[in-house]
């Protein structure tokens, strides 16, 4: 009787162990092919904060917040108007923008047992009202070095007209510092512009609503190892029972 029971259980145990490996592989494979981790829909803000959406189930993301007394958020996210020399001086250089806290930011946190491998951060940009030969630049920084240095910068220039100029920017996050993240990281986007050289009318620079963080969220190696070890343990125990 004992032999009959073990003969019945053993194939099932093999099946369960195999399923355990398959589930681990499935989880890893599905997460690894994810592209967008976080996206946003921040058009026409009515406050200085707006929700961002965590596309991946294993992360949480804060609201996007605009900072600085020339960062008005009643129109669109991270909207800055330059109509006086005083305003222009606040964001003439990256040092000026940092000193005046002219930035937008959001924080992303990965769940326990998972890790983020980032690839890029993409944003929309807009320059309007007199943006002919002028430009503005967005400088990306992070909490990993307490916002001390630029990760990268992207610039949108005028097109020779006085109309609205739309564009986009992308920041490369493939550096080792942004791989295997298991905690929280905050990204800040500082704005710098030379549009203050024209003060004959209000001019605007904006980080547009499409702020998208790309990468993968995968189980930590230790988590996968424990799951696989559990499956091996079940299989090995059933083998011992069968030969007893």
3D architecture notes:
The chain is elongated. By secondary structure, it is an alpha+beta fold. Strand 6 and strand 7 form a beta hairpin. Helix 1 (2-32) runs antiparallel to helix 4 (221-243). Helix content is 27%, strand content 39%. It has a single domain (35-220), classed as Jelly Rolls (Sandwich), CATH 2.60.120. InterPro entries: Ice-binding_C.
- Tell me about the largest β-sheet: 7 strands, antiparallel
Distance between the termini: 13 Å
Summarize the amount of helix as a percent range. 25-40%
Global morphology: elongated
Structural class computed from helices and strand pairing: alpha+beta
Q: How many strands?
A: 14
Quick recap of the structure?
The chain has four helices and 14 strands. It has helices at residues 2-32, 85-90, 94-99, 221-243, and strands at residues 36-40, 49-50, 52-54, 59-61, 64-67, 71-72, 79-82, 103-110, 114-128, 135-142, 152-157, 165-172, 184-193, 203-219.
